[in-house]
Amino acid sequence: MDNLSNNLNIHKISINKKNLRFLNTLGLNSIAESYINFDNFSDIPELIKISKNFSKIFCLGSGSNVVLSEYIYDLVIKVNLKGIEIYKENHEDIFLKIAAGELWNDIVFWSISNRYYGLENLALIPGTVGAAPIQNIGAYGVEFCDYFHSLLAIDIFNGKLVNMYLNDCKFSYRNSIFKLKNNLNRFIVLSVTLKLKKYWVPNLNHNNLKKYIKNQKSLSALDVYEIICNIRNKKLPNYKIYGNVGSFFKNPIIDQITYKQLFLKFPDIVVYTQNDFYKVSAGWLIEKCGFLGKNIGNAYVDDKHALIIINKGNAKAIDIINLASAIQSTVLSKFGILLEKEPVYV
């Protein structure tokens, strides 16, 4: 991969009209009236200047966590910045500064190949590096924030570059300061710095991971990476065949009192303990409401994994949104739990 500093050739930004169908994993037809491909760090001053002419902007990574409307009149910025460099290191840790447009899974594999460890459990999560802090991506007992050091971003409100650290980002379960209402599309993430380990310490405590692993002592980081890739490939439909954004809803977190009340009514409820709280399987809730294989228009709930909403053809954003809303209202009525969606509606 290129060094970040190599990507500094000066050129002029162009604004175009573009169909985003092949830039979102749901495969939705979406016409952006004003689209910019942002792939050069030297374009930052011009990008800031252009952004001031629009009331709203939307940053697009790999389009793996968005539901795009048919027409978008905001400024759409496709972040394609590339590059990776060693920011600093010591005996135990390596700090990698990674451009926001790099694909997340490429970085996971690259880090393992270079003997930098920690990201193995986050294998094959779709999306870009710049999108990872927005969602605080996570899987199999590991979250992005566990290895986050800092990020560099443009604050559109004042047109300045800002460095943000762990406490600034207010990470929580699939959430961050960037998803707060007042901050939506306020920041354009340019690069992320991760703090990885130079020695291999596996994290194999997640219940859904344990059953796939027989001999923990003999596993390498690459072995864990490949195991998780295989699990995800079997579990999730290929978005190139049926468009999807992966898990559409977060697993809701409830307290012990609520759990006991639900357990009395639904003794087969699937939960994962988390300190003094319980994380309920959203997939189980949806399946119990009878949504497997159900559809609105060409938007379907996957017939094997209830957390996945798929596009079986020419689904529109409204089909996806209406199906998701029907799921939310039914789950709320049956269980008293309001499911929170993961993707952003644009």
UniProtKB/TrEMBL annotation:
Gene3D superfamilies membership: 3.30.465.10, UDP-N-acetylenolpyruvoylglucosamine reductase, C-terminal domain, Uridine Diphospho-n-acetylenolpyruvylglucosamine Reductase, domain 2
Keywords: Cell cycle, Cell division, Cell shape, Cell wall biogenesis/degradation, Cytoplasm, FAD, Flavoprotein, NADP, Oxidoreductase, Peptidoglycan synthesis
GO biological process, one term: peptidoglycan biosynthetic process
InterPro entries reported in the protein's UniProt record: FAD-bd_PCMH, FAD-bd_PCMH-like_sf, FAD-bd_PCMH_sub1, FAD-bd_PCMH_sub2, MurB, MurB_C, MurB_C_sf, Oxid_FAD_bind_N
Cofactor: FAD
Tagged with keyword NADP: yes
Record GO terms (molecular function): FAD binding; UDP-N-acetylmuramate dehydrogenase activity
Pathway annotation: Cell wall biogenesis; peptidoglycan biosynthesis
Catalyzed reactions: UDP-N-acetyl-alpha-D-muramate + NADP(+) = UDP-N-acetyl-3-O-(1-carboxyvinyl)-alpha-D-glucosamine + NADPH + H(+)
Localisation per UniProt entry: Cytoplasm
Active-site residue list: 174, 247 (proton donor), 342
Residues of the FAD-binding PCMH-type domain: 28-199
Enzyme class label: oxidoreductase
EC numbers on record: 1.3.1.98
GO CC annotation terms, alphabetical: cytosol
Function (record text): Cell wall formation.
Similarity comment: family membership: Belongs to the MurB family.
The protein's name in its UniProt record: UDP-N-acetylenolpyruvoylglucosamine reductase
Source organism per UniProt: Candidatus Kinetoplastidibacterium kentomonadis
Gene from which the chain derives: murB
